[in-house]
Every structure is written in structure tokens, then in C-alpha cells.
Amino acid sequence: MNVGIFDSGVGGLSVWREIVKIMPGIPINYFSDSAYCPYGDKSKYEIIDRSLKISDFLISAGAAVIVVACNTATAAAITKLRESFEIPFIGMEPAVKPAALHSQSRVIGVLATKGTLNGDHFHNAVAKYAADVKVIAQVGEGLVELVEAGEIDGDKVQERLSHYINPMLEEGADNIVLGCTHYPFLIKAIKEITGSGVNIIDPAPAVAKRVKNVMQESHIFIPAAPSPHNSTCFFATSSISILKKMARMIDSEISEMNFIQVDI
Q: What's the pTM?
């Protein structure tokens, strides 16, 4: 048995990174649907179709629990996934609640994909937790593509991020929610724009804790692998080069044999 994780690309590695921190050595299959990335411009039905196919693949490969490490796929498909399969699914939740709770200015920013900002998860979270807070929602157009190209700093990244973040700062936002799993790879560049006075919220650590809790509640026990560095297999539906580069930024000792290109 293992933990399955999937995303449209490498963004879900930000969640994988947090899971292996609290459960080192746990066997994981990570699936990057890079041939269909980004999901943000896909229809709900396309995303559901891809999510069902990937989940079927991961379950066939031994997944006892699956993490939908993609905000857009969570918004579009997690209800259908839970209806279609018997194992637990953990999705991404927009971290509006902690942002609203900790905001002193009563203004928060949310940087996310179009699919996430149009989804019920986001609107429900705003209605429930941020009714008395000004929420500045911004589509991070082009950011996923930059991360997928391995570009996480430099002039192009700074220029695009400034275009999205500066208006939030001008409105007084003191908490900015990262509503896409790709965006934590840009935190360093984001903080260069915001400075130290703005709280950047990455939901990945909370999701990792949720995975551990769900496994305990569901009595799912997965023994750790002998080698923590090679306990994850990485699958991609197109070239594995960027997936390999980004994964090895987190753990440089991952074996070449752990990266596999697949066609589903």
C-alpha cells in the first residue's frame, strides 16, 4: 500500500514535501499530469475525466488514500471522486479561514487559478470565514506555466508577481493566501515584493497533517520504506525532466529509477 498524490504538474510537490516531513519514508506514488497542464483553463468535465483516470491508475498501483494536490482539481472533481471510489480522498482547501482570523487590516488577498476562484470551495470558504473581511481575489495567470518551466525566480517571475500582488498591498492586504499548489515554489520571490509585514499562507502543511489524521482515523497503516530518499515513485504524462528537477530540489538523493513516464 501507498499514499497516492496527483496534480496537473509539479505543484503538488509542495504538498508531497510536507507529507514526507511528518511521515518520512512512507511509500508514495506521485502523479504529474503534465501533458494536460495547466488545469486552470480546462473545463470541469475535462478535469473530472482526468482525475478519475489518474485515481484509477493510483489505486491500481496500491493507493490506500489519495491526495488531490491541486486546488483546481479539488474544486472540480473531489465530490465525483469520493462518489466513485471507496478509499479516502483529501483535497486542497483555500486557506481563507486562517487568513481572515489573523488579519489586522481586515483585508486579505487570494492568489489562485481561475478554476479555483470560480469553484464552490472558495466561495463557501469566503462566505463562512471572511464575511467581515475584504477579500481581493486575483487569478495568477501564467504562474503555473513559469513553475512548470522550472522558473521560480528572476525578472520575468518578479514582473508577473508584482502585477498581481502590488494591488493587494495597495488595498492593505496583510495576509495573502496561495490558492494553487504551484505557488509555494514562488514564496521567496513573493516575499521580496511583500516584505516581512505580510503573512504568506501556504496550505500544504495543514493538508499533510490532515492526511496523517485521516490515515489514523481510517486505520490505514503503511510501513515506512527502508530508504526514505527513494520511497516515492514519480509518474508524469509528458517529459519527466522538470518533475525530476523540482523533486530533486527538495531531495537531491532521489534515484533516476524513481521517475517514470506513463501514457494514460
A: 0.92
